[in-house]
């Protein structure tokens, strides 16, 4: 079990629902991460990727969080994925990977994501990356290519093109404009 998973269990973090399940050796029961039952001792936990795997290992589903219950509605499913993107935007995120961790096919994920958020998964990832790049351009001394790398866009020309496409200006201009605004503020 990773620290990330442990944190999710302790905080009843529903954004991890469907991503993993945890079983408790001492009770023989398994739960969704969001289950409100008292957090078990860390050493008693076994992690499973699916409810089926937990059942195969002879654990019983929790009556409270019903981990084998109905499939997550689309919105909850997509919100778990957007939250995953929000946390991992700097990684190499591919649709196939997102589909794998969210237990759906890439085609289905793409379609439901677009239907629910109005954006494709790729568009959403790009938007989040550019939002974080804006912050770094203003609040850090990183070079343009370093900013790109920090938000998962390792190809600098592509980073600049994408930034301009979404904001209307290049990263350098964006930083310059923010800086001169800042200095102007000081003069007042
Ligand atoms: Zn439970």
Descriptive keywords:
binds zinc ion, 9 helices, alpha+beta, 188 residues
Walk me through the structure:
A hairpin with a 4-residue loop joins strand 1 and strand 2 (29-31). The protein is built from 9 helices and 4 strands, in the order αβββαβααααααα. A 4-stranded mixed sheet has the order 3-1-2-4. The longest helix is centred in the last third of the chain and has 19 residues, at 121-139. It has 188 residues and is an alpha+beta fold. The model has no long low-confidence stretch (mean pLDDT 90). The structure holds zinc ion.
Tell me the radius of gyration. Answer: 21 Å
What string gives the helices and strands in order? HEEEHEHHHHHHH
Structural class: alpha+beta
Q: Would you identify the regions where 5 or more consecutive residues have pLDDT less than 50? A: none
Mean pLDDT comes to 90
**Main beta-sheet annotation:** 4 strands, mixed
Note the overall shape. Answer: elongated
How widely separated are the two ends? 54 Å
The unique ligands bound to this protein are: zinc ion
Q: What's the β-strand tally?
A: 4
User: How much helix, percentage-wise, in residues?
Assistant: 40-55%
Fraction in beta strands: 5-15%
**What is the number of helical segments per DSSP (H or I, 4+ residues)?**
9
Which strand order does the major sheet show? Answer: 3-1-2-4
């Amino acid at each position: 079990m990773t620290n990330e998973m442990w944190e999710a269990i302790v905080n009843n973090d529903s954004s991890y629902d469907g991503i993993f399940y945890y079983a408790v050796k001492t009770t023989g029961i398994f739960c969704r991460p969001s289950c409100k039952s008292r957090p078990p001792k860390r050493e008693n936990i076994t992690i499973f990727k699916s409810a089926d795997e937990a059942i195969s290992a002879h654990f019983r589903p929790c009556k409270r969080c019903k981990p084998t219950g109905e499939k997550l509605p689309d919105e909850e499913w997509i919100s778990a994925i957007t939250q995953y993107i929000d946390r991992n935007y700097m990684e190499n995120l591919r649709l196939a990977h997102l589909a794998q961790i969210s237990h759906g096919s890439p085609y289905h994920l793409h379609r439901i994501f677009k239907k629910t958020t109005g954006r494709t998964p790729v568009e959403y990832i790009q938007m989040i990356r550019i939002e974080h790049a804006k912050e770094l351009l203003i609040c850090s001394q990183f070079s343009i290519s370093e900013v790109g790398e920090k938000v998962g866009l390792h190809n600098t020309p592509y980073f600049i093109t994408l930034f301009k496409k979404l904001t209307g200006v290049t990263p350098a201009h964006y930083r310059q404009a923010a800086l001169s605004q800042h200095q102007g503020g000081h003069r007042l």
